[in-house]
């Protein structure tokens, strides 16, 4: 059996673990009063760029809950400012000059992490120095296609119409932009690993807006290029795909150790489609945290059961935790997952 | 072979048709300059409540394109004002007092269509009198769960967190609200059929926000109740489910003649899951209308091919047409679908 220090990492590698590890997307964030206290005096952007504060915020949920992993506090758009993108948060990311031409794409600078995002690397080092030894730190970046959605649309959007129209109208330019972003995110994530991140995660939040052929041509092209470049870092790679139920069968060849899915795809079906080569992360509905305690326990039990009790499951929500969530519900969830899974369901 | 007057209705009933019929969700709308011209002098709300104008706008796309069906110009929220909901459009629907308690639910009046929405019924009668005889008119309503999302959240939202939390926190109240809405929509759609609508469609735009068990408990409960009440009207019933790839296997017992799907689920897979008892409607990506003409033709051909060339396919987009779409692309699409499918692919 693995040492307790490595439960999350062991699960990423589909090794036998004493219980199902759990962490929560956006676990460092607005649902915590101690986070809101810091944000009352510092802007979101300043917070992501100040290692002392970003590290503090990363560590906050670990003090409240016995979570099995930490995740860097940052934003998927943060590194793009380092590439010359005119980026502000209002509060969603807004691009001063949306990127819609080859000239604008070619004007993007390659990302040089120690020069362009030193504050992120310093945050990683600080968290590693201060986090409990048995809680690994996950570094992350946005999937190239998801970043393209923001860069082309210029601001958050429900359907990202401008970006999706761009794929059909200018597929060659879209590929050119995706390749640049993929290379930049590979450099970014590689630098996070060198600074101490023990797992790397790519967030493909908008990949599920695409039909399967376009997902393969655009989103998978970018993700493949980023992840392939990271294999030699020796840390688990996690690919999170939101709204991707119709796309899971395309992920078989993606060089990711873990596939994160949203709450809509039952994990049993997900594992059948993915096969045995990849661990699965997810996938409780974030809304289930608003249920009474007994119903929350039932819902969490359902996820554990659908995951099949086997190694290779990391418990998480299917999407980021909502700001209006009661932290006590999170405490209950973490306990439920640890307790139920340690009863032997997912030992071999 | 069916008469040309009935191609759309025959396809709804999975009968052999000389070509694949096509209509387009939101075909009466902002992408048409003649629509924008009317909207320049009348508010959206006034437009939906003025039969002369609503009928005119319903007919506009039929003058430009040889579409196989018309769809009533209205909004899924329109009938709720008749139930006592304090509704405005800014431009999305905003509820003055969101419905979150049993008292608020019980205060909703049952809908009496001839009293509460006479302008909708008059619009139906006008369109039937003026539309070409071979172009049937589709009446529609919102799915009870989709309406609940707006009523509980109070305004449009990307994730409808408040409504989804309500399902988990107050499932009994949610069911109570769904049953009221289901009964109201059954009355509403039944009155549309009596006024002359030749097919009835339920738009479940947000059903895909739910995991399968919650979809079944809430969204399907509501849709089932509405559709079951409409079977005796003798017109085809269409259920459109957005983002529903993970949910299609739950629709087998739904009393709908046609299942409409979004652009993410390949139609071949959709038909395998649904079986042979229901026709399928969809599902070109609305973004494909921004492709050059040859690529648009290739994409439309892919949809026809995935539909299997068999009877029981109605071509449509997978979601409403975007306002920024070029009407000429729509003209091309309608011609492509008619021409390719009439070559014999979907005759038996």
End-to-end separation of chain A in angstroms reads 10 Å
Return the domain count of chain A. 1
**CATH topology heading of chain A:** TIM Barrel
What's the CATH architecture name of chain A? Alpha-Beta Barrel
The value of Rg of chain A in angstroms is 19 Å
Identify the strand order in the major beta sheet of chain A: 1-4-5-6-7-8-9
**Overall pLDDT level of chain A:** 95
- Number of DSSP-assigned strands of chain A: 9
* Total DSSP helices of chain A: 15
Highest CATH level, the class of chain A: Alpha Beta
Oligomer: homodimer
Provide a descriptive summary of the structure in words:
The structure is a homodimer of 348-residue chains. Chain A is an alpha/beta fold. Chain A has a single domain (4-345), classed as TIM Barrel (Alpha-Beta Barrel), CATH 3.20.20.210. Helix content of chain A is 46%, strand content 11%. In chain A, the strands form two sheets. In chain A, strands 1-4-5-6-7-8-9 form a seven-stranded parallel beta sheet. Chain A has a two-stranded antiparallel ribbon with strand order 2-3. In chain A, strand 5 (199-204), helix 12 (212-228) and strand 6 form a beta-alpha-beta unit. In chain A, helix 9 crosses helix 11 (171-195). Chain A is globular. The N and C termini of chain A lie close together (10 Å). In chain A, 54% of the residues are buried. The mean pLDDT of chain A is 95. At the A-B interface, helix 10, helix 12 and helix 14 of A face helix 10 and helix 12 of B.
């Amino acid at each position: 059996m693995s040492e307790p220090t490595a439960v999350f990492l062991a699960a990423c590698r589909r090794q036998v673990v004493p219980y199902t590890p759990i962490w929560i997307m956006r676990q460092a964030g607005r649902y915590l009063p101690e986070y809101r206290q810091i944000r009352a005096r510092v802007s979101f952007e300043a917070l992501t760029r100040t290692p002392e504060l970003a590290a503090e915020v990363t560590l906050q949920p670990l003090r409240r809950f016995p979570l099995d992993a930490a995740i860097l506090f940052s934003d998927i758009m943060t590194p793009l400012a380092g590439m010359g993108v005119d980026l502000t948060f209002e509060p969603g990311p807004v691009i001063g000059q949306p990127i819609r031409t080859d000239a604008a794409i070619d004007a993007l600078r390659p990302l040089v992490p120690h020069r362009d995002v030193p504050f992120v690397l310093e945050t990683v080092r600080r968290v590693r120095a201060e986090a409990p030894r048995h809680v690994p730190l996950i570094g992350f970046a946005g999937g190239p296609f998801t970043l393209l959605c923001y860069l082309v649309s210029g601001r958050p959007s429900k359907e990202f119409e401008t970006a999706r129209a761009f794929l059909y109208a200018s597929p060659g330019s879209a590929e050119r932009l995706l390749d640049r972003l993929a290379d930049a995110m590979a450099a970014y994530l590689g630098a996070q690993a060198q600074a101490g991140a023990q797992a790397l995660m790519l967030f493909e939040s908008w990949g599920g807006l695409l039909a399967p052929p376009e997902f393969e041509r655009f989103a998978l092209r970018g993700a493949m290029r980023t992840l392939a470049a990271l294999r030699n870092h020796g840390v688990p790679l996690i690919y999170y795909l939101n709204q991707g139920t119709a796309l899971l069968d395309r992920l078989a060849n993606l060089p990711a150790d873990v596939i994160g899915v949203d709450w809509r795809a039952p994990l049993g079906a997900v594992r059948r489609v993915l096969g045995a080569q990849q661990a699965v992360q997810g996938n409780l509905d974030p809304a289930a945290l608003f249920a009474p305690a007994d119903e929350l326990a039932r819902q969490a039990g359902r996820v554990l059961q659908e995951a099949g009790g086997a190694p290779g499951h990391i418990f998480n929500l299917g999407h980021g935790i909502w700001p209006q969530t009661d932290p006590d519900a999170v405490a209950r969830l973490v306990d439920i997952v640890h307790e139920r899974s340690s009863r032997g369901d997912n030992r071999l």
